[in-house]
UniProtKB/TrEMBL annotation, chains A, B:
It comes from Endozoicomonas numazuensis. SUPFAM superfamilies: N-terminal nucleophile aminohydrolases (Ntn hydrolases) (SSF56235). InterPro entries: EgtC-like, GATase_2_dom, Ntn_hydrolases_N. PROSITE patterns: GATASE_TYPE_2. Keywords: Glutamine amidotransferase, Transferase. The keyword Cytoplasm does not apply. Gene3D superfamilies: Glutamine Phosphoribosylpyrophosphate, subunit 1, domain 1. One of its GO terms (molecular function) is transferase activity. It holds the Pfam family GATase_4. The lineage of its organism: Bacteria, Pseudomonadati, Pseudomonadota, Gammaproteobacteria, Oceanospirillales. Residues 2-251 form the Glutamine amidotransferase type-2 domain. This is Glutamine amidotransferase.
């Protein structure tokens, strides 16, 4: 199965530690080897890195691992191809512009019959179920909300409804962002952890790397990391329930629905 | 002034040589130091690298320079900010999805009153005149052509009309691609060269680098490079005329209008 990784923070933070763990799953400690991608937000702007080659061998992945890009929101994905050939256009995450914001999406799972659903404004560039699902979701949002609704919860409730509908077609674990919020929907497998003061040391499962977070943070930092499976051996991760949506803003839970 | 760099080739080709020259203009041999970006196409898929920091100091630029990403179409830009603050969302090139393809755009020049023009489907994420102009151009294309027209020349003629209209507002040197064609519009300054067999040695103006293209090509390769100003000292570049549009496909001229 593909693996997801996301981050929401109240201060620009790098994800090198968690990404190192994820990178090893891309062919060394895990079977995932059909491409990877990562999108970093700095305010409204995005930086993305992607490669159809296995992440454990990728020169670009090595740059991301070693060059600490500080970011408020991150979405990353390692792909194990099931539907759609291995190619650059089939690597997640996918991005579309809506309301003058960059929206980014990554997914794991397979969705039977997704391509029977009708699209309007957005069309996929590649051939994956995932990108098609993203385009459909964005079309529905655009039809319903030509402008941002007055209350964020209105949008968040509707996103939950759409995610539940997509879940009917198969497995739909999702990370989505509108550049301000990180929407995490669990269909089968997703977990998260919020790190804040007092920070402690953490050790990755998939790499020999450990980090003492106390040394690289301030006492006001709040950083939430979301992953398909817990990345560290010595911390308490929250395991999401099937059908659950959590929306993080600046590292904290803003909305939650089961 | 900002600098543009583009490439259209009939075989996946790297742009390290030309990019080295452009990179030096980002703060060493030139005044351009408000960010840079580059988008590579591999078929329908895109890889992009961008940084609001000067290109001559950028770690990411160094990766691009040294890691030969082979591509059919490339658009790159170094920014000298005049309108719109220096930030990640204000770095070119800009990309939008249309007809299930990634369209990418970069621009140099300033456009007075561009933000009075009406937008529809696409909205800018940043604050530059350039991105606004791109969104307007894409809106007009989308209104006129809900689907690709039967004949490419129909679209190309219309793009020329829109570019001439934008040129009325100031300076509008443009590179645009729909993932198959490279549209080059000259408002004040743009030049190009097509390299094919028999290939020869070339020397950059802004770097000490020389390349003997015979050693890195086959006899069937056709590679066109487009730049604001000629990048090499010893080759014959074609200087475009104001108001001219040239459309390249696989390195060759497919459409041309003055």
């Amino acid at each position: 199965m593909c693996e997801l990784l996301g981050m929401s923070a109240n201060t620009p933070t790098d994800i090198c530690f968690s990404f190192s763990g994820l990178m090893q799953r891309g062919g060394r400690t895990g079977p995932h080897s059909d491409g990877w991608g990562i999108v970093f937000y700095e305010g409204a702007g995005v930086r993305e890195f992607r490669d159809p080659h296995p992440s454990c061998e990728s020169e670009i992945a090595r740059l991301v691992r070693n060059y600490p890009i500080k970011s408020d929101i991150v979405i990353s994905h390692i792909r194990q191809a099931n539907a759609g050939r291995v190619s650059l256009e089939n690597t997640h995450p996918f991005t579309r512009e809506f309301w003058g914001r960059n929206w980014t999406f990554a997914h794991n799972g397979q969705l039977k019959g997704i391509k029977k659903k009708e699209l309007c404004y957005y069309r996929p560039v590649g051939t994956t179920d995932s990108e098609y699902a993203f385009c459909w979701l964005m079309c529905k949002l655009r039809e319903r909300f030509p402008k941002p609704p007055a209350r964020p919860a209105t949008l968040q409730r509707y996103i939950h409804t759409l995610a539940l509908e997509l879940r009917e077609l198969g497995v739909f674990n999702m990370l989505l962002t509108d550049s301000k919020h990180l929407y995490c929907f669990c269909s089968t497998k997703l977990s998260w952890i919020t790190r804040k003061a007092p920070f402690e040391k953490a050790t990755l499962k998939d790499d020999s790397l450990s980090v003492d977070f106390k040394k690289v943070t301030t006492e006001n930092d709040i950083v939430t990391v979301v992953a398909t499976e817990p990345l560290t051996t010595n911390e308490s991760w929250n395991i999401m329930k099937p059908g659950e949506l959590i929306v993080f803003r600046e590292g904290q839970v803003e909305y939650h629905k089961e």
